[in-house]
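In this section we walk through a basic example: taking a raw amino acid sequence and producing a predicted 3D structure, encoded as discrete structure tokens. The instruction is simple. Fold the sequence below.
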Amino acid sequence: MWIIIIVAIALVLVFWFISVQRRLVNCDENCSNAMSQIGVQQQSRWDALTALAELTKGYSEHEYNALRDIIAMRQGVNGNSTAKQVDEQEELISKALQGVNVVIERYPDLKANTTYIKTMDSVNTYENQVRTSRMVYNDSVTIYNRLIRQFPSSIVASMLHFDKKDYLQENPATASMPSMKL
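The resulting token sequence is shown next.
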């Protein structure tokens, strides 16, 4: 009789452990997926910024070279990237956009260029998509971090080495960045 009770308790504990492990993996994968989405959106923004750099080439060789150098420093963001790496890439994108603003201020006729207008629309669209992806990532991290910190799932999380994830931080420079809208 006691053996049956002990086996039943052991089975309940094993099933509970498996259930918690599966939830942890699910939350971890959601965080990785959200980070990958940010990478995809950032790549689209880099592509649009590269097109803008090419447009500026005809107006200012110096600004074109500066933008090209910034674009060359980019690194890909994927599901294994850290929040710090994403924030560093966002800082580079901000510098590139500021360079484009300098060219626009010096050469106002660039604003009338239809290719420029379409490309800036793309940059703005991708910027909104990155903002949304960042919110999704931070929401996923919140769920994951709560799960690994709450008892009793924290026991399984520590046993299986599920570590706390960092949130993406808002860059103060981008908060005060001038609007790119026409």
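Looking at the output, two observations stand out. Confidence is low (pLDDT under 50) at residues 176-182. The helical segments are 2-57, 61-72, 83-106, 114-149, 153-159, 172-175. In the next section we compare this with other chains.
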